[in-house]
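The material for today's practical consists of a large collection of protein records. Getting from the letters to the tokens is the skill we practise here. To make this concrete, we reproduce a full record directly below:
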Amino acid sequence: MKDNNHSPNTAANNCLQAKHSIDIDHLQLLVFDADDTLWDCQSHFDEVMNRCARMLKPYVSPDKVADQLYATERANMPLMGYGTKAFTISLLENALRVSNYKVPADVVEKILQMGKELLLLPATPLEGVEKTLAHIRESHRWKMVMFTKGESLDQKGKISRSGLSSFFDDIIIVDDKTDNEYSKVCERHSALPEEMLMIGNSFRSDIAPALRIGANAVHIPFHTTWALEHAETFEHEHLVTLSSFSQLEQFLL
């Protein structure tokens, strides 16, 4: 039976009332992840992977195509890092292997074209992102930094298409979000780790490393996660989990 005594904002209020030890007034630096926090990225990659799996169905089941692709991406990562170009190379390599090098040239060409199309994905801000960033910016209480990983030209293209650059004091693109890179963000903006709040969707890349250096974090899960970004979540006194980006305004202001 539906409980009509509960308002639509009950879930949001419960989320914001979770126990934590984040001192909002002590924060100096707000650091925002980009892909799947500010705009949708992974859904586009998932769609390309699914299309590729359908093309390769004559050779292997779609599930095996996905499993083999993740293994190929993991093996290529130390050499190629993150990003669309690395993903496209892994797609092509995987197609050759799962087909026992029998995949026709027209399929290879289609996979290559899908990879090129990903370089132009729209990077349309997610619901509530622009409004929330604008309100936080208007408060003039914190420095605001976009902190993203991947291939520089690819990330710069998405940032430009998103139209969000003006909300940030700084935009930082790194090959990978290591603990050391998080420390460098603090040093670059003369902030102590405990004065920084990291906001992102990936527990592995955005939340855990920020907490490890002594920073605070807000986790905003996205509806889909890249297999290589999966990680066990945990509770932490300097961590808050929100269900939408819009709730960040309630939390901070």
User: Anything to note?
Assistant: Residues 1-15 have pLDDT under 50 and may be disordered.
